Amino acid sequence: MLFDFFYLATELKKVPRKGWKSKIGIEHPESVADHTYGTALMAMVFSDVHNLDTEKILKMALLHDLAESVTGDFMPEEISKENKKAAEDEAIKEILSKLPEDVAVKYSNIWDEYTQANTKESVLLHDIDKFEMAIQAVKYSSEGFSNEKLGLFIDSAKKEIKSKELLDILGTLSYK
User: Fold this and answer.
1) Rounded to two decimals, what is the model's pTM?
2) In this structure, which topology does domain 2-172 adopt according to CATH?
């Protein structure tokens, strides 16, 4: 049972972040698992800085894209937000069904909290999800990929992030 969960979860290592590939032309972009690691690390630090529930936000960060091990990585223009949420909710149920019921219920509650974005931790994690994407865009810029195209990712992050602190950090970044 646990083997099935871990086997399915590690599929994230093989799921490329589609936007980097199709919009920037990066042949071997980061995986969803790479993005999840960066997001979790940033969430841990910002949670501790702001005295939030770091254990909860770390679990949330590790779960936030887990459904993509089944659904794949959708770009916003490929699917409506409602259909994406429905597909991911169904996928997360399938994935969590491979865990003991008491653990699955805990993780399902954390997933619901994240998708509802109604707590300090979930709001921060949504911002960090976009912030991590912007940081990755800056990294790709330093590797010689198109600043014009990468700027679209950074601008998108700036539009969606609510945290003044994260926006201030993004405002200091330059990309070549």
Assistant:
1) 0.95
2) Hypothetical protein af1432 (1.10.3210)
